[in-house]
Amino acid sequence: MNLEVTQxxxxxxxxxxxxxxxxxxxxVVTVKLTDGAFSGWGECxxxxxxxxSLDSVMQKIEALxxxxxxxALQERMPAGAARNAxxxxxxxxxxxxxxxxxxxxxxxxxxxxxxxxxxxxxxxxEVMREQAAKNAFRPLLKIKLGTPxxxxxxxxxxxxxxxxxxxxxxxxxWSAEVYADLAPHLQKLGVALVEQPLPAGQDDALLGLPRxxxxxxxxxxxxxxxxxxxxxKYDMINIKLDKTGxxxxxxELKSAAMAEGFGIMIGCMVSTSLSxxxxxxxxxGADFVDLDAPMLLxxxxxxxxxxxxxxxxxxxxxxxx
Length: 321
Fold this sequence. Notes:
Layout: E1 2-18, E2 21-34, E3 39-44, H1 54-62, H2 70-76, H3 81-98, H4 102-106, E4 118-120, H5 125-134, E5 140-144, H6 150-160, E6 165-169, H7 176-188, E7 191-195, E8 215-217, E9 236-239, H8 241-244, H9 247-259, E10 263-266, H10 273-282, E11 288-289, E12 307-308, E13 311-312
Helix pairs in contact: 1-3, 5-6
């Protein structure tokens, strides 16, 4: 098996800002696995929040030798971006060898389009209102908060898009006191979901607090090992391939979480259609889907995903799977 690992950069259409900072490009790691006859592709986005960098992820992948199959990979690499790229490349390769689509290998029905959230960058209330109005035709908007001026921003977005469902992502930026104060206002403004209001590791404060709006674990949920600590704090979990370490664990996490009564959100990092492609399979039947990253790019893979009024469509075989 021949392994190729590269760093690739894709420009964003405009700077994207969250409480932790801003970016103007997606810097991803691309994996290509070739067995002589077929090639499988995967992509990941290293995330500094999880102590990952482009160099550290590439080193982990390049250190692999004798890559046999996905199950062995789960034992050899921990959950995270590096394993995600390799795992998804192995799925792609397996499908091509079998002459089938990945969903056939999984045993799931042929996937269809799913409505995805569209994310608004963290800006001044005035700019966010303009952006909300420009995108008010979309059925679901996601806004990044986690600052001292959150309510004016939320009110501005609601004014700009009065009929659109809204997801709020606090990016670990609130305290329990701030959340308790904001919760009734979030409900009044028709917020459908709040992602990660408190920092991971400090979210025990959510135990016993009222949840008039469902709360979704993001940074607090990585793989199945995360689930026991989420009970009583969260209503939903946000599954991202770069956290689970690939589609293999993500499928298991989704099944286990649903069995425990958690709602499901499928999310993403700011990356290309190659990263989104496996996640479109996970998105089938999810409560919320947030796979809009390619919509934020100025440039994408040669055969990008299709986005239209019905949502994000599964990949064609030229892209992945």
